[in-house]
Design a protein that fits this description.
The structure is a homodimer of 286-residue chains. In chain A, strand 3, helix 3 (79-88) and strand 4 (93-95) form a beta-alpha-beta unit. Helix content of chain A is 38%, strand content 20%. In chain A, helix 9 (205-219) packs antiparallel against helix 10 (223-236). Chain A is globular and about 55 Å long. Chain A has 2 domains: 7-177, HUPs (Rossmann fold), CATH 3.40.50; 190-281, Pantoate-beta-alanine ligase, C-terminal domain (Pantoate--beta-alanine Ligase, Chain: A,domain 2), CATH 3.30.1300. Chain A has helices spanning 11-23, 39-51, 79-88, 99-102, 121-124, 128-143, 155-167, 197-202, 205-219, 223-236; strands at 7-8, 28-33, 54-59, 93-95, 109-113, 147-151, 173-177, 240-248, 263-271, 274-281. The longest helix of chain A is centred in the middle third of the chain and has 16 residues, at 128-143. Chain A has 10 helices and 10 strands. By secondary structure, chain A is α/β, with parallel strands linked by helices. The termini of chain A are far apart. In chain A, the strands form 2 sheets. In chain A, strands 1-4-3-2-6-7 form a 6-stranded parallel β-sheet, with helices on both faces. In chain A, strands 8-9-10 form a 3-stranded antiparallel β-sheet, covered by helices on one side. At the A-B interface, strand 5, helix 6 and helix 7 of A face strand 5, helix 6 and helix 7 of B.
Amino acid sequence: MSGAPKTIVTVAELRTIIALWRGHGDKIALVPTMGALHEGHLSLVRLAKKNADKVVVSIFVNPAQFAPHEDLATYPRDEAGDMEKLQALGTDLVFAPAGTEMYPPDFSTHIEVTELTNGLCGRSRPHFFGGVATVVAKLFLQCLPDMAIFGEKDYQQLLVIRRMARDLDIPVNVLGGPIIRERDGLAMSSRNAYLTKDERARAPLLFKTVTRIAKALSQDGEISEHIQSGRAALADAGFDVDYLEVRNADDLTPLAGSVAEPARVFAAALLGKTRLIDNVAVPEKK
Amino acid sequence: MSGAPKTIVTVAELRTIIALWRGHGDKIALVPTMGALHEGHLSLVRLAKKNADKVVVSIFVNPAQFAPHEDLATYPRDEAGDMEKLQALGTDLVFAPAGTEMYPPDFSTHIEVTELTNGLCGRSRPHFFGGVATVVAKLFLQCLPDMAIFGEKDYQQLLVIRRMARDLDIPVNVLGGPIIRERDGLAMSSRNAYLTKDERARAPLLFKTVTRIAKALSQDGEISEHIQSGRAALADAGFDVDYLEVRNADDLTPLAGSVAEPARVFAAALLGKTRLIDNVAVPEKK
């Protein structure tokens, strides 16, 4: 027997254990992941440990959020490494269901969130947020945790999930954890493993660009101007920019002119075959 | 103070009371309605009383399940009568939220159930089942009852809700209650109030027709033949038939030829301006 965290694969087992914990009055946190865990995920598990008595980490690479041309088949997997990392953090339970446990053959229910998904990643990945909302609702209702924790790297996803949970009255507190970055600023992501050595060296420019724009806007200047020069810098470095935008941080309304509300800068770009995303808050004007 | 059942209008109040009951180990049943209660609804409340310790009846005319041309504005309402009837049955709690409690201005989540909704009422009322699935998921998650009870008169709705709850892992047992009929066979429905005296006299033909088809199929014969003569009989009596079909009772697969599985006969027709629906099981062959 290794000391790996207890791992279960069925909803029935999950509910049995959760009911036991509930009986003891434990506060429960869920950290949904697709595995291939890095420091970004681990920071969310730490946040969960700090706020709850019991921490469940789910590992499920959700087919419903990948389009046919996307990277479902090659998405990084590292079960042994994941277990080692989760054990080191004192994770109480790992829930790793098979596809058939989540989606029986006659599965036919789909959740769609509108408004928040109109732009940014929702434009270039029209399947994505519906697939995420559906699987996350399922995980919430399988586990019924007090809180669930998601990374701010997928900031739009965090808002979509929070809205979905509020709209459907799922009794869960959806918390966001800050983006964890490599030393050179690159936001941690399982997909960074796809980058060639040369691409990896250029990748931090995405963070540098959104940060430069955020700083500039906190001081002065017109959004479109800074966006334009940011796009140019990324294109010069070989990024194929999907979007580079400034939006309201609460409801993702697109912003133009000068910034006068809580705002964030959002970017997505292809570097070679790897899609990178990032976002930063615009610091408040002094 | 009248002896009417306690009525609340907010989710917060509902959750407080449910938590109290849960603390006592009570089993809780929810009966979702749109008010204008008749014996059909009351039979569901009685079924709930029999199976649970506490019964919550929700009354909410859900705008999301009406198309713009449908009868949302004129849908029958009878709050005083509803309360009297619910009191007589010993209903523990009535939950009657306002529209804004259910749908805040930035509400943006929608649940869609496919497959089961492809035909029957799903064809002529494309908004309907999405609106129903979304509001019922909300009611389930606001209340988190052990069981919820729906009438078999809306048989397709019952299956859609059961599928939705299973697919999203909502921990609720969805039970169906048998159709309650007037003496002459007409299925009870709030919309029967729309019928003129003359229409009311002709209305039972819908039940007679589906019953005749079901009996015939339990003995012998070809589905299409019986359907054809049934359609003719209804048309002769002034019904504008929307559908008259035989389908598998479990998954609503359309059936043809002779019946060899659990089957039901389903009908919907306009009589004047009133849309009537009905369904009966095909008795098993001896």
